[in-house]
């Protein structure tokens, strides 16, 4: 033992009869043994806060208290027990008063691990008074793991009359002989507690919140691959308290008792509780799943979620909604839920719903799924309703009809109805990428080629760089905002011929951008997109001012997608993300004529046809599990325009221009399970106005610089800025 004192067989980090016992630390290790109790801090009348006990490979024959006070508070204490034995109880903080009120026991932490053995129970915080009010025992944390064994009950917080709210209990690969409580109070509330049991065994009942007469609302219980030998309660109140808005989730394991979302034994309400069963869970033949139980209070709005296959148990009761999550595992495996009770199942005024996983194989017309089976039948009435559609993932909707022969309740697929509006969101990424590729093509064909021609000659080569950036909005039935930068670097050479001059050369291009797409239904997609490619161009400038030009480009695009606001068929949020790469290629041809109006002014009238193709590919949506097979996207644009230029001096030229562009195609298609989703399109017209300024080099090796600003309205709107550089060498 280190850092404490021994008195009458007990160990104390700090001890006082009148003052506070604060910030003490006690360490027991190396097979150390304490014959009686261990106290991090002990006060007969003051507070016992911020004390720490660490027991590593030690033995305590009676109790362990992080902080103990006979009437004051016991807050913010920490107890850590590793590979050790405690004879009776462990408490993070304990306020115990025989005469008068007890203090608060909150914000304490207890951690027990590595095959530790506790002969009694474990409390995160405990406040009890035998002759007066008690304090709260809230915000405590208890963690039990690694094959440890607790021979008593476990509570995050317990109090005789105070509140026990916001406690957290986690049992992992350990055994608790008796009950587990998130919060337990005789007369106070037990709200907003959380109990998580993973790979554990519990001999008694499990309570998210447990109170005799207080409120037990908003508690959460999560059971994973564990054996619970008695009942499970989200919220439990035996007198007049309510048990509302509690949640129980069971994912695998064995449950010997019944499960109650909320249990108000007397007059309290038990409303809006949720029980969720996922995966391979084994129930006793007599187990009851109940949304709520109340003596005379209301039991409305409770929900049962089933995502299991071949589930069987006694019966279900007091659920307003029965939600079935269907996958390949339970569609063809017989009834999803078989009820073995000798009594009928009461489904009066219940809503029966189903949704289909996006990763599941497509259903066909005529397919049937049995959801509920009870050989003794069901009680139904006109208030028993079911959906007439079945949504798969977030993309497809089947037409269905529900069937009820009074022993089996199921659904039958009547055929496809439609794709959801949500299905358009992932394809918006494809349009965003094509729109970004088009901005790169515009950057090169509008400025890059003209500037290359301006500096290229027959005896020297020329290097030019064209950079553009800005933001634009593509209207596609919804809309997509794109921001990014395009860059092209090329070399140009000129050859004089009888008609004039031919300029040609290779170039490389790249672009980096991001986008966000918006649907009217509230779904949003966000992501990044970029491309890298190479190409070649040529332009013939005739002596009479007429010119012809063309280019080819090829490269690779990469993009990603993050969807938000997506929902399954039951309105639950879904996540969907993907990463995608695809090849692209493009071409353009153009014709124009430059006419000199005065010695310093000229006009350029032109027409261009631009084509961009992005190849199709397939992606799997991480989160929803759906596979989207994207078709190729083709953009074919025709543009006519004019540009008026005026030389300001020997080196500087200013210009203004306008153009009209029409997109003939620009549709992004996709299929899911072979069924076409909604396809956004950017087909339509847009107008452009530009302003620019070009500056020729002052010295022989200086670059020619061209700056311009373009604004768009119509199907495409926004602005881009372009900066172009050209060098002779």
Detailed description of the structure:
β44 (462-475) and β45 (479-496) form a beta hairpin. The chain is mostly beta strands. The longest helix has 31 residues, at 425-455. The mean pLDDT is 93. The strands form six sheets. It has a 21-stranded parallel β-sheet that branches. Strands 1, 2, 3, 6, 9, 12, 15, 18, 21, 24, 26, 28, 30 and 33 form a 14-stranded mixed β-sheet that branches. A twelve-stranded antiparallel beta barrel has the order 44-45-46-47-48-49-50-53-54-57-58-59.
Proportion of strand residues? over 45%
Could you name the ranges where pLDDT drops below 50 across 5 or more consecutive residues? none
- The SS-based structural class is mainly beta
Number of helices: 2
Overall geometry comes to: elongated
**Beta-strand segment tally:** 59
Main beta sheet, described?
Answer: 21 strands, parallel
Roughly how much helix do the residues carry, as a percent range? under 10%
Arithmetic mean pLDDT: 93
> Distance between the terminal alpha carbons, to the nearest Å?
83 Å
Radius of gyration: 37 Å
Question: Keywords for this structure?
Answer:
729 residues; mainly beta; 21-stranded parallel beta sheet; 14-stranded mixed beta sheet; 59 strands
List the helices and strands and how they pair.
Blueprint (H helix, E strand, L loop, with lengths): L4 E3 L2 E3 L2 E2 L8 E5 L3 E2 L3 E6 L8 E5 L2 E2 L3 E6 L8 E5 L2 E2 L3 E8 L11 E5 L3 E2 L3 E8 L11 E5 L3 E2 L3 E6 L8 E5 L2 E2 L3 E6 L8 E5 L2 E2 L3 E6 L8 E9 L3 E6 L9 E9 L3 E6 L9 E10 L4 E7 L8 E5 L3 E3 L1 E3 L3 E6 L1 H4 L5 E3 L5 E2 L4 E6 L11 E7 L3 E2 L5 E2 L2 E4 L3 E9 L3 E12 L5 H31 L6 E14 L3 E18 L3 E19 L5 E19 L3 E19 L11 E21 L4 E14 L2 E4 L6 E4 L2 E15 L4 E12 L6 E3 L2 E2 L7 E12 L8 E11 L1 E13 L1
Parallel strand pairs: 2-6, 3-6, 4-7, 5-8, 6-9, 7-10, 8-11, 9-12, 10-13, 11-14, 12-15, 13-16, 14-17, 15-18, 16-19, 17-20, 18-21, 19-22, 20-23, 21-24, 22-25, 23-25, 24-26, 25-27, 26-28, 27-29, 28-30, 29-31, 30-33, 31-34, 32-35, 34-37, 35-38, 36-39, 37-40
Antiparallel strand pairs: 1-2, 38-43, 41-42, 42-43, 44-45, 44-59, 45-46, 46-47, 47-48, 48-49, 49-50, 50-53, 51-52, 52-55, 53-54, 54-57, 55-56, 57-58, 58-59
